């Protein structure tokens, strides 16, 4: 039950949405850029203050994820996206709004892990062909308004 809307969110919807976020983290962290981009709608958007421009559309999202993984690999680090405190704010059978915390952790080979960024994400999801997809993601760093 959402405190803001009073709308009931069924268990299957919650499970499928949680699976989306777990899948996304594993895909980008393991260099599976095309599959990561496919977790967004074809016109999906990624907005983050860490990057100068929004990334929009499957081709650009794929390139973004490829670069992210290659930069980490060439730096000799393993990067992990850790999504916690997932809150499905509202949902119906075609759309949902999700809030979560996203931590990006970097571990150099033989070194200690370090927190690179602590952020919040707000996602607008759409349901297409029985799958939940991200239509628009807005990332906010904790050091920005």
From TrEMBL:
Domain of life assignment: Bacteria
InterPro entries: NTF2-like_dom_sf (IPR032710), SnoaL-like (IPR037401)
Protein name from the UniProt record: Nuclear transport factor 2 family protein
Domain SnoaL-like residues, every copy: 15-137
UniProt source species: Microtetraspora fusca
